[in-house]
Amino acid sequence: MKACLVVCGLLLCSTPAFANGNSSLNSELGHFAGGVFTSSAVTALSNYIAPEQNRAWNGFWVPTAVSSLEELREFAVGDNTAGEALLDASCFAVGAFIGSYSTNHFLLTPTVGKDGETGRYFGLNLAFRF
């Protein structure tokens, strides 16, 4: 199932994209979809690269920071107005939140770790009866 979702996502991303700077619904949906796919990928990579860190936060903040810096650059160069840059960045951030949350909770397996404050373990507990 996971492999099927990844293949479908890659097929959706492989369609040709034509750049035109406007604030239409299609443009904002493109930023939203880009946020979903990139944050899902970063969340999955964070699970394998740094499993001790919170993978959902990594999947949200890393792509959102890069996208926000890109929109700031476009505003500084004069390609976008402040309102268009803010709209693009916020649509990307909403998509990144949904992508990282859904990947963390529905596609990746739960993690079990040690809580530093109480010493208790949290996560998924499996019990089998013999």
Structure description:
The protein is mostly helical. The protein is 66% helix and 3% strand. It has a two-stranded antiparallel sheet with strand order 1-2. α2 crosses α4. The model has no long low-confidence stretch (mean pLDDT 80).
List the helices and strands and how they pair.
Blueprint: H1 2-13, H2 25-49, H3 55-77, H4 82-107, E1 113-114, E2 121-122
Antiparallel strand pairs: 1-2
Largest sheet: 2 strands, antiparallel
On the 0-100 scale, what is the average pLDDT?
80
Strand order of the largest sheet: 1-2
Instruction: Supply the helix-strand structural class.
Output: mainly alpha
Number of strands: 2
Quick gist of this model?
The protein has 4 helices and 2 strands; from the N terminus they run ααααββ. It is mainly alpha-helical and 130 residues long. A hairpin with a 6-residue loop joins β1 and β2.
